[in-house]
Amino acid sequence: xxxxxxxxxxxxxxxxAFLVLLVxxxxxILAASQSELNFENIGAFLxxxxxxxxxxxxxxxxxxxxxxxxxxxVILRRxxxxxxxxxxxxxxxxxxxYSAITPSATGGQPxxxxxxxxxxxxxxxxxxxxxxxxIAYTAAILIMGATAFLLRPSLLGGVESGFSxxxxxxGFVVQGLLLSFFIACIFCRKAVLWLGRKIVVLLAKLxxxxxxxxxxxxxxxxxxxxxxxxxxxxxxxxxxxxxxLLNLCQRVAxxxxxxxxxxxxxxxxxxxxxxxMQCFVLLGYNSVPLPGGVGAFEYLYLNIYSTHFEQAFxxxxxxxxxxxxxxxxxxxxxxxxxxxxxxGIRKYKRGTDxxxxxxxxxxxxxxxVQDENNV
Length: 375
Prior knowledge:
Blueprint: H1 7-33, H2 39-48, H3 51-78, H4 85-101, H5 108-118, H6 123-151, H7 162-187, H8 189-205, H9 212-227, H10 230-235, H11 239-265, H12 271-285, H13 296-304, H14 311-374
Helix pairs in contact: 3-4, 3-6, 3-11, 3-14, 4-5, 4-14, 5-6, 6-7, 6-11, 6-12, 7-8, 7-9, 7-12, 8-9, 11-12, 11-14, 12-13
């Protein structure tokens, strides 16, 4: 009789099914409403494009994964863990892969933590490394958004869709609130706990939440996780800037994928305009709790890029950019993660077999000594 799927396996299958559904709906809407979206236009786009620019876009996709791995590598080394760079790249690949298939990227950090724990990194160290990287990641998104507003302050106002403008502004506000919460947890723990408990009590009275004690404990646990990093920050004051720099490199690499794709087919396009538009797209789809921003990315791309390009060009550029930045990246990170996972299993089996042989030889040696004593 076939074994039942584990709870984790069922959850992952549901996430994948939800992702496939979103992709299908997005593709159906685009195909039905945009007559310019066809393979002939995409082929014409690629045939006229500078191939080296497309290669650069693929290079930026790889840099996107590598930059996060370098950030985790630096943080872990500062915390005293002398692991290999390839392991940190695997933690990054796990984060990228599971973030892409789970709503609000909720599966990325637990997946990275799993491999860290498997590699012998303590729970406290792995938790802080991921939290510290998340803080740098959030700050990097805010900085990219602020840069776009500074470079092209009037660009967002020229977008016809009011909902697109709302999503971009909402993304900026959400990321700002998240970063403020992280900083407050680290430096103002008591104030955050006091305010959080007041909010939980109010929500319980309004019967919006149940089991007040459970929510208070969850709040306390989350705040304490971030506050625990205060000692590390005091011991390594430059670490936040190092992690932030590498996370900025990751965000820039992600944004440059679209810049290179568009510039490949339209050399006259301004890199500053392309960079600013893609920063706004990044801000906007990060405010929507969908796996990889599927649907939200396409919606924002179509509306924001329409201020500079024709519809046929936008659709082809969007599809190619999305394939490279999301689908190919998902496949590459997934393959890397599977290889690393399999290598870990083989290593564990070799260690187990070696231990079994050692036990056997020790038993044999003991028996021989006993025989000699009896003689």
